[in-house]
Protein backbone atom coordinates (compact mmCIF):
# COMPACT_ATOMS: atom_id res chain seq x y z
CA UNK A 1 0.00 0.00 0.00
CA UNK A 2 1.34 3.45 -0.84
CA UNK A 3 1.37 6.08 1.88
CA UNK A 4 -1.63 7.80 0.30
CA UNK A 5 -3.58 4.56 0.03
CA UNK A 6 -2.87 3.85 3.69
CA UNK A 7 -4.08 7.27 4.70
CA UNK A 8 -7.10 6.92 2.47
CA UNK A 9 -7.91 3.58 4.11
CA UNK A 10 -8.18 5.61 7.32
CA UNK A 11 -11.32 7.13 5.80
CA UNK A 12 -12.91 3.67 5.75
CA UNK A 13 -12.41 2.61 9.38
CA UNK A 14 -16.09 3.37 10.01
CA UNK A 15 -17.02 0.32 7.94
CA UNK A 16 -16.46 -2.11 10.81
CA UNK A 17 -18.78 -0.18 13.16
CA UNK A 18 -22.56 0.01 13.43
CA UNK A 19 -23.88 2.75 11.16
CA UNK A 20 -27.34 4.06 12.06
CA UNK A 21 -29.84 5.37 9.50
CA UNK A 22 -28.22 3.86 6.40
CA UNK A 23 -30.42 3.03 3.41
CA UNK A 24 -31.33 -0.56 2.73
CA UNK A 25 -29.85 -0.68 -0.78
CA UNK A 26 -31.40 -3.68 -2.56
CA UNK A 27 -28.44 -4.37 -4.88
CA UNK A 28 -24.97 -4.27 -3.21
CA UNK A 29 -23.17 -4.65 -6.54
CA UNK A 30 -24.98 -1.62 -7.99
CA UNK A 31 -23.96 0.34 -4.89
CA UNK A 32 -20.30 -0.72 -5.28
CA UNK A 33 -20.29 0.46 -8.90
CA UNK A 34 -21.74 3.83 -7.93
CA UNK A 35 -19.18 4.26 -5.14
CA UNK A 36 -16.34 3.46 -7.57
CA UNK A 37 -17.66 6.08 -9.97
CA UNK A 38 -18.08 8.70 -7.25
CA UNK A 39 -14.49 8.06 -6.15
CA UNK A 40 -13.34 9.12 -9.60
CA UNK A 41 -15.25 12.43 -9.55
CA UNK A 42 -13.47 15.70 -8.78
CA UNK A 43 -13.85 17.32 -5.34
CA UNK A 44 -16.75 19.73 -4.85
CA UNK A 45 -14.76 21.94 -2.50
CA UNK A 46 -11.06 22.61 -1.94
CA UNK A 47 -9.49 21.46 1.34
CA UNK A 48 -7.99 24.96 1.79
CA UNK A 49 -11.53 26.39 1.91
CA UNK A 50 -12.40 23.95 4.69
CA UNK A 51 -9.35 25.19 6.59
CA UNK A 52 -10.46 28.77 6.09
CA UNK A 53 -13.91 27.96 7.47
CA UNK A 54 -12.28 26.20 10.43
CA UNK A 55 -10.41 29.44 11.15
CA UNK A 56 -13.62 31.47 10.86
CA UNK A 57 -15.35 29.09 13.26
CA UNK A 58 -12.34 29.45 15.55
CA UNK A 59 -13.31 33.13 15.81
CA UNK A 60 -16.85 32.02 16.68
CA UNK A 61 -15.52 29.71 19.41
CA UNK A 62 -13.43 32.56 20.83
CA UNK A 63 -16.44 34.88 20.93
CA UNK A 64 -15.30 37.12 18.08
CA UNK A 65 -17.87 36.17 15.41
CA UNK A 66 -21.37 34.72 15.00
CA UNK A 67 -22.37 31.74 12.85
CA UNK A 68 -25.44 31.96 10.63
CA UNK A 69 -26.11 28.45 9.31
CA UNK A 70 -29.32 27.89 7.40
CA UNK A 71 -31.14 26.42 4.47
CA UNK A 72 -33.53 23.66 3.52
CA UNK A 73 -34.44 20.78 5.75
CA UNK A 74 -34.08 18.56 2.69
CA UNK A 75 -32.90 19.84 -0.68
CA UNK A 76 -34.69 18.32 -3.64
CA UNK A 77 -33.35 17.48 -7.11
CA UNK A 78 -36.28 19.23 -8.79
CA UNK A 79 -35.56 22.43 -6.85
CA UNK A 80 -32.06 22.93 -8.26
CA UNK A 81 -33.17 26.03 -10.15
CA UNK A 82 -31.77 29.55 -10.36
CA UNK A 83 -34.79 31.12 -8.62
CA UNK A 84 -34.83 28.78 -5.66
CA UNK A 85 -31.08 28.99 -5.13
CA UNK A 86 -31.07 32.79 -5.44
CA UNK A 87 -34.01 33.14 -3.06
CA UNK A 88 -32.31 31.05 -0.40
CA UNK A 89 -29.05 32.91 -0.80
CA UNK A 90 -30.81 36.26 -0.75
CA UNK A 91 -32.53 35.37 2.51
CA UNK A 92 -29.23 34.36 4.10
CA UNK A 93 -27.50 37.51 2.79
CA UNK A 94 -30.29 39.68 4.21
CA UNK A 95 -30.13 37.90 7.56
CA UNK A 96 -26.35 38.27 7.50
CA UNK A 97 -26.65 42.01 6.84
CA UNK A 98 -29.13 42.42 9.71
CA UNK A 99 -26.97 40.47 12.14
CA UNK A 100 -23.75 42.22 11.13
CA UNK A 101 -25.20 45.73 11.20
CA UNK A 102 -27.76 45.54 13.98
CA UNK A 103 -25.81 43.01 16.07
CA UNK A 104 -22.41 44.64 15.35
CA UNK A 105 -20.68 41.31 14.92
CA UNK A 106 -18.84 39.61 12.02
CA UNK A 107 -21.10 36.89 10.66
CA UNK A 108 -19.81 33.59 9.27
CA UNK A 109 -22.34 32.49 6.61
CA UNK A 110 -22.84 28.78 6.03
CA UNK A 111 -25.69 27.29 3.97
CA UNK A 112 -27.47 24.02 4.56
CA UNK A 113 -27.03 23.76 0.84
CA UNK A 114 -25.34 21.89 -2.01
CA UNK A 115 -25.44 18.51 -0.28
CA UNK A 116 -28.38 18.44 2.15
CA UNK A 117 -30.08 15.57 0.33
CA UNK A 118 -30.20 12.81 2.99
CA UNK A 119 -32.55 12.60 5.98
CA UNK A 120 -32.47 10.53 9.16
CA UNK A 121 -35.99 9.39 10.04
CA UNK A 122 -37.81 8.38 13.22
CA UNK A 123 -39.37 5.34 11.57
CA UNK A 124 -38.06 3.04 8.80
CA UNK A 125 -41.48 2.68 7.17
CA UNK A 126 -44.58 4.73 6.49
CA UNK A 127 -48.13 3.34 6.31
CA UNK A 128 -50.96 4.97 4.37
CA UNK A 129 -54.39 3.39 3.96
CA UNK A 130 -53.04 0.00 5.02
CA UNK A 131 -50.05 0.13 2.60
CA UNK A 132 -46.58 0.10 4.18
CA UNK A 133 -43.53 1.33 2.26
CA UNK A 134 -39.98 2.43 3.18
CA UNK A 135 -39.90 5.93 4.57
CA UNK A 136 -38.59 8.80 2.41
CA UNK A 137 -34.90 9.32 3.31
CA UNK A 138 -34.06 12.25 1.07
CA UNK A 139 -33.56 12.55 -2.67
CA UNK A 140 -30.10 10.96 -2.40
CA UNK A 141 -31.78 7.69 -1.42
CA UNK A 142 -35.37 7.39 -2.68
CA UNK A 143 -38.31 9.35 -4.08
CA UNK A 144 -40.94 11.26 -2.12
CA UNK A 145 -43.92 9.77 -4.03
CA UNK A 146 -45.71 7.06 -2.07
CA UNK A 147 -45.19 4.20 -4.55
CA UNK A 148 -43.05 1.05 -4.20
CA UNK A 149 -40.90 2.16 -7.18
CA UNK A 150 -40.16 5.62 -5.78
CA UNK A 151 -39.56 4.47 -2.23
CA UNK A 152 -37.07 1.72 -3.14
CA UNK A 153 -33.55 3.02 -2.41
CA UNK A 154 -31.61 3.53 -5.64
CA UNK A 155 -27.83 4.14 -5.46
CA UNK A 156 -27.88 5.95 -8.82
CA UNK A 157 -29.41 8.78 -6.81
CA UNK A 158 -26.05 9.30 -5.07
CA UNK A 159 -24.60 10.37 -8.42
CA UNK A 160 -27.52 12.76 -8.91
CA UNK A 161 -26.78 14.15 -5.46
CA UNK A 162 -23.20 14.85 -6.51
CA UNK A 163 -24.30 16.60 -9.71
CA UNK A 164 -27.08 18.57 -7.99
CA UNK A 165 -24.58 19.69 -5.32
CA UNK A 166 -22.07 20.69 -8.01
CA UNK A 167 -24.62 22.79 -9.96
CA UNK A 168 -25.87 24.45 -6.79
CA UNK A 169 -22.40 25.26 -5.55
CA UNK A 170 -21.44 26.60 -8.95
CA UNK A 171 -24.30 29.11 -8.94
CA UNK A 172 -23.73 30.01 -5.28
CA UNK A 173 -20.08 30.75 -6.05
CA UNK A 174 -21.12 32.87 -9.06
CA UNK A 175 -23.61 34.88 -6.99
CA UNK A 176 -21.32 35.38 -4.01
CA UNK A 177 -18.25 36.44 -5.95
CA UNK A 178 -19.70 37.86 -9.19
CA UNK A 179 -21.34 41.05 -7.93
CA UNK A 180 -24.75 39.87 -6.69
CA UNK A 181 -23.61 39.79 -3.08
CA UNK A 182 -21.88 43.21 -3.23
CA UNK A 183 -22.97 45.11 -0.11
CA UNK A 184 -24.20 47.91 -2.37
CA UNK A 185 -26.91 45.48 -3.44
CA UNK A 186 -28.54 45.49 0.03
CA UNK A 187 -31.62 47.17 -1.45
CA UNK A 188 -31.76 44.98 -4.52
CA UNK A 189 -32.02 41.83 -2.36
CA UNK A 190 -35.14 43.32 -0.83
CA UNK A 191 -36.88 44.81 -3.89
CA UNK A 192 -39.48 42.10 -4.39
CA UNK A 193 -40.26 42.05 -0.71
CA UNK A 194 -40.26 45.57 0.67
CA UNK A 195 -43.90 46.42 0.01
CA UNK A 196 -45.42 43.11 0.95
CA UNK A 197 -44.00 42.46 4.37
CA UNK A 198 -43.39 44.29 7.68
CA UNK A 199 -39.98 42.65 8.00
CA UNK A 200 -39.18 43.77 4.43
CA UNK A 201 -39.99 47.35 5.43
CA UNK A 202 -37.91 47.13 8.58
CA UNK A 203 -35.07 45.71 6.52
CA UNK A 204 -35.35 48.59 4.03
CA UNK A 205 -34.72 51.06 6.82
CA UNK A 206 -31.60 49.15 7.87
CA UNK A 207 -30.47 48.97 4.22
CA UNK A 208 -30.72 52.76 4.01
CA UNK A 209 -28.48 53.10 7.08
CA UNK A 210 -25.96 50.69 5.55
CA UNK A 211 -26.06 52.76 2.36
CA UNK A 212 -25.32 55.94 4.27
CA UNK A 213 -22.42 54.26 6.05
CA UNK A 214 -21.03 53.03 2.72
CA UNK A 215 -21.37 56.47 1.15
CA UNK A 216 -19.59 58.01 4.11
CA UNK A 217 -16.72 55.53 3.81
CA UNK A 218 -16.59 56.11 0.08
CA UNK A 219 -16.38 59.86 0.60
CA UNK A 220 -13.45 59.22 2.95
CA UNK A 221 -11.72 57.29 0.16
CA UNK A 222 -12.38 53.85 1.67
CA UNK A 223 -13.86 51.22 -0.66
CA UNK A 224 -12.79 47.82 0.66
CA UNK A 225 -12.74 44.79 -1.64
CA UNK A 226 -14.34 42.79 1.20
CA UNK A 227 -17.65 44.56 0.52
CA UNK A 228 -17.81 43.36 -3.07
CA UNK A 229 -17.93 39.62 -2.46
CA UNK A 230 -19.18 37.39 0.33
CA UNK A 231 -17.46 34.44 1.94
CA UNK A 232 -20.08 31.73 1.88
CA UNK A 233 -19.68 28.08 2.78
CA UNK A 234 -21.69 24.92 2.14
CA UNK A 235 -22.63 22.34 4.78
CA UNK A 236 -24.82 19.27 5.14
CA UNK A 237 -25.40 16.33 7.44
CA UNK A 238 -22.83 13.58 6.81
CA UNK A 239 -25.42 10.84 6.89
CA UNK A 240 -25.01 8.36 4.03
CA UNK A 241 -21.47 7.25 4.76
CA UNK A 242 -20.91 5.44 1.44
CA UNK A 243 -21.35 8.79 -0.31
CA UNK A 244 -19.31 10.82 2.18
CA UNK A 245 -16.39 8.41 2.19
CA UNK A 246 -16.39 8.18 -1.64
CA UNK A 247 -15.92 11.95 -1.58
CA UNK A 248 -13.17 11.78 1.05
CA UNK A 249 -9.75 12.52 -0.39
CA UNK A 250 -6.15 12.98 0.68
CA UNK A 251 -5.23 16.66 0.50
CA UNK A 252 -2.11 16.95 -1.63
CA UNK A 253 -0.83 19.90 0.44
CA UNK A 254 -0.96 18.25 3.84
CA UNK A 255 -1.52 14.52 3.26
CA UNK A 256 -4.61 14.69 5.46
CA UNK A 257 -8.14 13.49 4.74
CA UNK A 258 -10.94 15.90 3.85
CA UNK A 259 -14.54 15.15 2.99
CA UNK A 260 -14.71 17.29 -0.13
CA UNK A 261 -18.50 16.96 -0.52
CA UNK A 262 -18.91 20.22 1.46
CA UNK A 263 -16.93 22.64 3.60
CA UNK A 264 -18.50 21.67 6.93
CA UNK A 265 -20.39 18.50 7.75
CA UNK A 266 -22.38 17.71 10.85
CA UNK A 267 -23.41 14.54 12.64
CA UNK A 268 -27.07 14.42 13.59
CA UNK A 269 -28.83 13.68 16.84
CA UNK A 270 -29.76 10.17 15.65
CA UNK A 271 -26.26 9.16 14.51
CA UNK A 272 -23.93 10.60 17.16
CA UNK A 273 -23.38 7.28 19.02
CA UNK A 274 -19.89 7.42 20.53
CA UNK A 275 -19.03 3.92 19.29
CA UNK A 276 -20.83 4.31 15.98
CA UNK A 277 -19.65 4.69 12.40
CA UNK A 278 -20.52 8.38 11.99
CA UNK A 279 -18.33 9.64 14.82
CA UNK A 280 -15.52 7.35 13.65
CA UNK A 281 -15.83 8.78 10.12
CA UNK A 282 -15.87 12.37 11.39
CA UNK A 283 -12.82 11.73 13.57
CA UNK A 284 -10.74 10.95 10.47
CA UNK A 285 -11.44 14.06 8.41
CA UNK A 286 -10.06 17.56 8.83
CA UNK A 287 -13.22 19.49 7.91
CA UNK A 288 -14.88 21.57 10.61
CA UNK A 289 -17.40 19.24 12.26
CA UNK A 290 -20.76 19.96 13.86
CA UNK A 291 -22.52 17.61 16.25
CA UNK A 292 -26.17 18.00 17.17
CA UNK A 293 -26.89 17.72 20.88
CA UNK A 294 -30.49 16.99 21.87
CA UNK A 295 -32.08 17.07 25.33
CA UNK A 296 -30.81 13.64 26.36
CA UNK A 297 -27.13 14.58 25.81
CA UNK A 298 -24.99 14.35 28.92
CA UNK A 299 -21.85 16.34 29.77
CA UNK A 300 -19.91 13.04 29.75
CA UNK A 301 -21.02 12.41 26.15
CA UNK A 302 -20.06 15.94 25.16
CA UNK A 303 -16.61 15.50 26.73
CA UNK A 304 -16.09 12.15 24.98
CA UNK A 305 -17.12 13.73 21.68
CA UNK A 306 -14.48 16.40 22.24
CA UNK A 307 -11.89 13.71 22.99
CA UNK A 308 -12.80 11.83 19.80
CA UNK A 309 -13.27 14.73 17.40
CA UNK A 310 -11.09 17.51 18.77
CA UNK A 311 -8.25 15.92 20.72
CA UNK A 312 -5.99 18.91 19.94
CA UNK A 313 -8.61 21.34 21.34
CA UNK A 314 -8.45 23.43 18.20
CA UNK A 315 -10.96 26.32 18.16
CA UNK A 316 -13.16 25.97 15.05
CA UNK A 317 -12.77 22.23 14.68
CA UNK A 318 -15.89 21.34 16.68
CA UNK A 319 -19.26 23.07 16.83
CA UNK A 320 -21.94 21.82 19.21
CA UNK A 321 -25.35 22.54 17.71
CA UNK A 322 -27.82 22.26 20.56
CA UNK A 323 -31.48 21.46 19.79
CA UNK A 324 -33.19 21.01 23.11
CA UNK A 325 -36.68 22.45 22.61
CA UNK A 326 -37.91 25.74 24.03
CA UNK A 327 -39.21 24.07 27.17
CA UNK A 328 -35.93 22.30 28.00
CA UNK A 329 -33.09 24.56 26.89
CA UNK A 330 -32.90 26.46 30.19
CA UNK A 331 -32.66 23.16 32.13
CA UNK A 332 -30.47 21.08 29.84
CA UNK A 333 -27.93 23.51 28.39
CA UNK A 334 -26.24 25.01 31.49
CA UNK A 335 -24.64 21.80 32.74
CA UNK A 336 -23.31 20.94 29.27
CA UNK A 337 -21.78 24.37 28.72
CA UNK A 338 -20.40 24.54 32.24
CA UNK A 339 -18.64 21.17 32.14
CA UNK A 340 -17.32 21.59 28.61
CA UNK A 341 -15.97 25.04 29.48
CA UNK A 342 -14.41 23.72 32.69
CA UNK A 343 -12.62 21.02 30.67
CA UNK A 344 -10.70 23.74 28.82
CA UNK A 345 -12.14 22.81 25.42
CA UNK A 346 -12.89 25.62 23.00
CA UNK A 347 -15.97 24.64 21.00
CA UNK A 348 -18.44 26.89 19.20
CA UNK A 349 -21.95 26.77 20.72
CA UNK A 350 -24.73 27.17 18.21
CA UNK A 351 -28.50 27.03 18.72
CA UNK A 352 -30.76 25.00 16.41
CA UNK A 353 -34.19 26.23 17.59
CA UNK A 354 -36.05 24.10 15.03
CA UNK A 355 -35.64 20.40 15.76
CA UNK A 356 -36.76 20.40 19.39
CA UNK A 357 -39.96 22.30 18.61
CA UNK A 358 -41.77 20.24 16.00
CA UNK A 359 -45.37 19.15 16.50
CA UNK A 360 -48.17 17.80 14.35
CA UNK A 361 -51.09 20.15 13.68
CA UNK A 362 -54.64 18.77 13.63
CA UNK A 363 -54.46 18.95 9.81
CA UNK A 364 -51.61 16.40 9.93
CA UNK A 365 -48.92 18.93 8.89
CA UNK A 366 -45.66 18.83 10.83
CA UNK A 367 -45.10 22.38 11.99
CA UNK A 368 -43.28 24.67 14.44
CA UNK A 369 -44.41 27.81 16.23
CA UNK A 370 -42.30 30.88 15.50
CA UNK A 371 -42.70 31.84 19.18
CA UNK A 372 -41.16 28.53 20.31
CA UNK A 373 -38.27 28.99 17.89
CA UNK A 374 -37.70 32.46 19.29
CA UNK A 375 -38.05 31.28 22.88
CA UNK A 376 -35.41 28.59 22.39
CA UNK A 377 -33.00 31.19 21.02
CA UNK A 378 -33.81 33.46 23.97
CA UNK A 379 -33.13 30.59 26.39
CA UNK A 380 -29.84 29.91 24.60
CA UNK A 381 -28.77 33.56 25.03
CA UNK A 382 -29.89 33.61 28.68
CA UNK A 383 -27.88 30.49 29.53
CA UNK A 384 -24.73 31.82 27.88
CA UNK A 385 -25.16 35.21 29.52
CA UNK A 386 -25.55 33.53 32.91
CA UNK A 387 -22.35 31.52 32.42
CA UNK A 388 -20.33 34.25 30.75
CA UNK A 389 -19.87 32.12 27.61
CA UNK A 390 -20.43 33.04 23.99
CA UNK A 391 -23.72 32.35 22.18
CA UNK A 392 -21.97 31.49 18.93
CA UNK A 393 -24.74 31.32 16.36
CA UNK A 394 -27.97 29.93 15.03
CA UNK A 395 -28.70 26.94 12.80
CA UNK A 396 -32.09 27.21 11.09
CA UNK A 397 -34.22 25.48 8.50
CA UNK A 398 -35.41 28.16 6.10
CA UNK A 399 -36.28 28.87 2.52
CA UNK A 400 -36.40 32.04 0.44
CA UNK A 401 -39.83 31.08 -0.86
CA UNK A 402 -43.11 32.27 0.51
CA UNK A 403 -44.11 28.94 2.08
CA UNK A 404 -46.58 28.36 4.91
CA UNK A 405 -44.91 25.67 6.99
CA UNK A 406 -44.26 27.28 10.41
CA UNK A 407 -46.97 29.18 12.28
CA UNK A 408 -46.66 32.75 13.63
CA UNK A 409 -44.13 35.44 12.75
CA UNK A 410 -44.76 39.08 11.75
CA UNK A 411 -46.92 38.05 8.80
CA UNK A 412 -48.83 35.72 11.16
CA UNK A 413 -49.36 32.34 9.54
CA UNK A 414 -52.17 30.41 11.26
CA UNK A 415 -52.55 26.64 11.58
CA UNK A 416 -55.40 26.88 9.08
CA UNK A 417 -53.02 28.46 6.53
CA UNK A 418 -50.51 25.61 6.57
CA UNK A 419 -52.03 23.80 3.58
CA UNK A 420 -51.62 26.85 1.32
CA UNK A 421 -47.95 26.44 0.50
CA UNK A 422 -46.67 23.46 2.43
CA UNK A 423 -43.81 22.35 0.19
CA UNK A 424 -41.16 20.79 2.41
CA UNK A 425 -40.26 17.16 1.81
CA UNK A 426 -39.54 16.65 5.50
CA UNK A 427 -39.56 19.28 8.25
CA UNK A 428 -41.21 22.75 8.25
CA UNK A 429 -39.00 25.71 7.32
CA UNK A 430 -39.19 29.40 8.16
CA UNK A 431 -40.17 31.46 5.14
CA UNK A 432 -38.33 34.61 4.14
CA UNK A 433 -40.36 36.95 6.29
CA UNK A 434 -40.07 34.71 9.38
CA UNK A 435 -36.34 34.34 8.75
CA UNK A 436 -35.85 38.11 8.64
CA UNK A 437 -37.99 38.56 11.76
CA UNK A 438 -35.76 36.05 13.51
CA UNK A 439 -32.58 37.81 12.35
CA UNK A 440 -33.78 41.17 13.75
CA UNK A 441 -34.70 39.61 17.09
CA UNK A 442 -31.43 37.69 17.34
CA UNK A 443 -29.47 40.85 16.49
CA UNK A 444 -31.22 42.61 19.40
CA UNK A 445 -30.40 39.73 21.74
CA UNK A 446 -26.79 39.77 20.63
CA UNK A 447 -26.49 43.51 21.20
CA UNK A 448 -28.06 43.21 24.65
CA UNK A 449 -25.67 40.39 25.52
O1 LIG B 1 -34.82 16.88 9.88
C1 LIG B 1 -34.76 16.08 10.80
C2 LIG B 1 -35.26 14.72 10.74
O2 LIG B 1 -34.93 14.12 9.55
C3 LIG B 1 -36.72 14.77 10.88
O3 LIG B 1 -37.05 15.59 11.98
C4 LIG B 1 -37.25 13.39 11.08
O4 LIG B 1 -38.57 13.47 10.92
P1 LIG B 1 -39.53 12.25 11.25
O5 LIG B 1 -39.68 12.21 12.73
O6 LIG B 1 -40.78 12.61 10.53
O7 LIG B 1 -38.90 11.02 10.69
C1 LIG C 1 -31.96 15.83 11.21
C2 LIG C 1 -31.62 17.04 11.59
O1 LIG C 1 -31.51 17.43 12.86
P1 LIG C 1 -31.32 16.55 14.16
O2 LIG C 1 -30.22 15.57 13.88
O3 LIG C 1 -30.95 17.56 15.17
O4 LIG C 1 -32.63 15.89 14.43
C3 LIG C 1 -31.34 18.12 10.63
O5 LIG C 1 -30.80 19.14 11.04
O6 LIG C 1 -31.68 17.96 9.46
UniProtKB/TrEMBL annotation:
Q: Which EC class, in a word?
A: transferase
Which EC number(s) are documented for this chain?
2.5.1.54
Metabolic or biological pathway, per its Swiss-Prot or TrEMBL entry: Metabolic intermediate biosynthesis; chorismate biosynthesis; chorismate from D-erythrose 4-phosphate and phosphoenolpyruvate: step 1/7
Highest taxon in the source lineage = Bacteria
Keywords, alphabetical = Amino-acid biosynthesis, Aromatic amino acid biosynthesis, Transferase
This one is known as: Phospho-2-dehydro-3-deoxyheptonate aldolase
Which SUPFAM superfamilies does the protein's record reference? Aldolase (SSF51569)
GO MF, one annotated term: 3-deoxy-7-phosphoheptulonate synthase activity
The record's section on NCBIfam families has: DAHP_synth_II
Q: Does the keyword ATP-binding apply?
A: no
So what does this thing catalyse? D-erythrose 4-phosphate + phosphoenolpyruvate + H2O = 7-phospho-2-dehydro-3-deoxy-D-arabino-heptonate + phosphate
Q: Which family does it belong to?
A: Belongs to the class-II DAHP synthase family.
Q: Which InterPro entries is this protein grouped with? A: Aldolase_TIM, DAHP_synth_2
Q: Does the keyword Amino-acid biosynthesis apply?
A: yes
Amino acid sequence: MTVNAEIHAGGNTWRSLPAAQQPDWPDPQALREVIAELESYPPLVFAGECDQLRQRLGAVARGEAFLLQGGDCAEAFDAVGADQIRNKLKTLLQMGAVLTYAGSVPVVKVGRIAGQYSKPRSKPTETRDGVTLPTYRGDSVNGFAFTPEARTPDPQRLKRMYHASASTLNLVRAFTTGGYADLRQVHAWNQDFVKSSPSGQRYEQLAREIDRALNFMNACGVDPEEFKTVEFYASHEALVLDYESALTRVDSRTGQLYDVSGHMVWIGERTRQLDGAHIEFASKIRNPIGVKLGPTSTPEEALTLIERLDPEREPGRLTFITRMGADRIRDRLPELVEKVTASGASVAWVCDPMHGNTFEAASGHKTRRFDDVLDEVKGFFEVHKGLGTHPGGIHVELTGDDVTECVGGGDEIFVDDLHQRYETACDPRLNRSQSLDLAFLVAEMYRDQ
